[in-house]
Structures are given as structure tokens and as C-alpha cells.
Fold this sequence. Notes:
The protein is an alpha+beta fold. It is built from eleven helices and twelve strands. The longest helix has 19 residues, at 247-265. The model has no long low-confidence stretch (mean pLDDT 95).
Amino acid sequence: MYETIYHRPTSLADAAALFAKAGDATYLAGxxxxxxxxxxxxxxxxxxxxxxxIKDLIGIEVxxxxxxxxxxxxxxxxxxxAEAKRAIPAIVHLTTVLGDPAVRYRGxxxxxxxxxxxxxxxPAAVLALDATITTNTREIKAADFFQGLMxxxxxxxxxxxxxxxxxxxxxxxSKMRHPASRFALTAVFVxxxxxxxxxxxxxxxxxxxxxxxxxxxxxxxxNWSASALDGITVSSDGLMEDIHGSAAYRANLIKVMAxxxxxxAG
Length: 266
């Protein structure tokens, strides 16, 4: 590896100040993408600013009708949270099928969202639950946050501080895992709000990243049941195609995973 300067700030203000004065800095969350990319010399930041020790970025709470998960909270802490289990069990289930134990001990929700990998799990939950991403400068709605493959609305130097998930009436996540990486070959998060709105998001399928699935949303709005999707056909337009599955295969997986998720949600 090449030379880089490692920083471990203890406050958001310090982290932002370090980024502003560095030549070509990057933030470090769990490091599951950044570190391998640096080892392969595909990225060469002058400074690496570790956000993992900032206490204001760690914690889980339920406030009113929302589950709030701070950005540097690890996946492991989410799986152990009684508050998260009571508020949105589907979030905890999603986290338990994410990666492996080593990934869950180090990975963070903020790092996942900032990276926006097209096969990551949390983007599906954020989009389906219409969550709000809070940064050190503003609030961003889920629909505005994800802007295509590995791209988000974050500006240079902006730090995700927390994610606020509205607590749904029903929700579930079903995932077809890649056997090696544990990323989603295709996965679907379904949610029904307390007002009756149905939102469905798929990850691991679209070449543009996480996506809503209007055909399934419409069918479930009329009839919240797995059987309501029997006659639905999901378009394969714009879906990924690789050695692991064709676009048509992923289109069918979206339907199947949605049916399983609805059955799990009850």
C-alpha cells in the first residue's frame, strides 16, 4: 500500500475539519469496501478519517413512531438491540442475514448507505420504509438519497449521522444470498405503513441499484397476501445480467422474494 495519514477524531466537528483541510480525504466506517479498494490501489486517499469512535454516531433509540439508528452503529449492535427488535423486527432479520459474523461485527449502517452497493441489504429497507437519512448538514429522504449505481446525494465531506425508520404496521425482508459473498443475488423488503400505504424495494437486481417495484406495490395494496402476486410479471428491463443469473431470472426472483416476505410479514 502507499502512504496515507490515518485520523481518529472524537467528534463530528473534528472529522469535518480534518476533511476540509486534507488534500484528498475519505471517511472510514466499517471499511469493508474502502480497505480492499485501497489494497488493490484503486483508491489512494491522502487521509483516512475513521468515524468509528465518535460517540455521537453510535446508538439506537425509538422516538415517537420512528426507530433511529445512528450511523456508526455496527450490524452486531443492531442484532442485539431490544429496541430494534420491538420496533421493526424486519430490520433485525435483515441484519442477521447480512454478510457473516466478521462483517456484522465491523460493518455499519452509515457505511453501507454511503457506499450504496447495488447488492447491499440496507438500501432496500431504507427505500421501502421511506426512511430519512440525517447528515451533519441536513435531512435527506430515501427517494432523493439513492441516485444510481454506487451514487448518492451526499456532497463531498458530508457525514451520515443517523437513519430514521418510520415504524410500519407490517414489514419483512426476504433474500436470495450469493453463496460466496452473502450479498443479495436478489432481495426484497416489503412494508405496509400504519396508514395503509404499501412500499416494496428490491436490491441486487437492478443495474441502477436499489429500486421500487410498482407492480407488486399495486397488487399488495389491493390484496395484502402472497397469492395476490401469483399473476404478476415483473419486467426484466434494466435488471442485471451476469454469470450468477439472467435478467429474467432476477425478475422472477423479485416476485418470489416478495411473496416470501409478505408471508413472513403476516
